[in-house]
């Protein structure tokens, strides 16, 4: 589905559950082969912010 999508946006925030903390990075690695992931904003540690905490005026940018 990622390969067929016009835009893939990562916006998962920082999961509190310990088993999920590294899952975003794993998923990003898997999707990089099929799509160019975008983010709305990155935190200082490189985690994509959840859109609930961001202004609606932000535009997706390619993930560095």
Q: Calculate the terminal CA-CA distance, rounded to whole Å.
A: 22 Å
Element pattern in H and E? EHEE
Strand segment tally: 3
| Range of strand content | 5-15%
Mean pLDDT rating: 83
Q: Uncertain spans, ≥5 residues at pLDDT below 50?
A: none
How are the strands of the largest sheet arranged? 1-2-3
Find the structural class using helix and strand composition: alpha+beta
Tally of individual domains: 1
Radius of gyration (Å): 12 Å
Shape by Cα distribution: globular
Q: Main beta sheet, described?
A: 3 strands, mixed
- Report the total helices: 1
Provide an overview of this structure.
The protein is α+β, with helices and mostly antiparallel strands. It has one domain. The mean pLDDT is 83.
Give the gist of this structure.
The chain is an alpha+beta fold. 14% of the residues lie in helices and 12% in strands. It has a 3-stranded mixed β-sheet with strand order 1-2-3, with helices on one face.
Keywords:
3 strands; 12% strand; 1 helix; 14% helix; 64 residues
Please describe the topology of this protein.
Layout: E1 8-10, H1 23-31, E2 37-39, E3 61-62
Parallel strand pairs: 1-2
Antiparallel strand pairs: 2-3
């Amino acid at each position: 589905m990622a390969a067929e999508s016009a835009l893939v946006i990562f916006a998962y925030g920082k999961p509190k559950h310990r088993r999920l903390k590294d899952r975003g990075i794993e998923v990003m690695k898997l999707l990089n082969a099929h799509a160019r992931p975008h983010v709305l904003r990155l935190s200082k540690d490189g985690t994509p912010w959840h859109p609930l905490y961001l202004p609606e005026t932000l535009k997706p940018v390619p993930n560095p």
